[in-house]
Amino acid sequence: MKAFFEGIQWLFETIFFALHDFLRNLELTHWFAANILNWIFMAICSVAIVYWCLELKKYEEKGEENQDTTAHSFLK
Question: Where are the membrane-spanning stretches (predicted)?
C-alpha cells in the first residue's frame, strides 16, 4: 500500500508539476518569462472586455436593448 501512495507522489512531483518547477526556477533569472502565462491571460481578458463593451455600445445605439425594469419578473 505504501508503494501505491509513493507512486502517486512520484507521478505528481515528477510529471504533473514539472512545468511549475520549471517556472519557479525560471523566476529567479527571468521574471517576465516566468509570468508569461499571466500576461497571456490578462491580454485575453482585456480583448474580451473591449469586445463586450463594443457589442454593448452597438446594441445601445440600435435601441434594441430593453432597459425597462419590468423586463424581468423578479424586478416587479
Answer: 31-54
Q: Tell whether 73 is covered by a domain.
A: no
Q: Is the dihedral of CA 33, 38, 44, 47 positive or negative?
A: negative
13 part of a folded domain: yes
d(CA 38, CA 14): 23
Query: pTM, whole model, 2 decimals?
Result: 0.58
Q: Is residue 38 part of a domain?
A: yes
Q: Residue 6 is part of which domain span?
A: 2-64
Where the chain has pLDDT below 70, the residues are: 66-76
Amino acid residing at 29? T
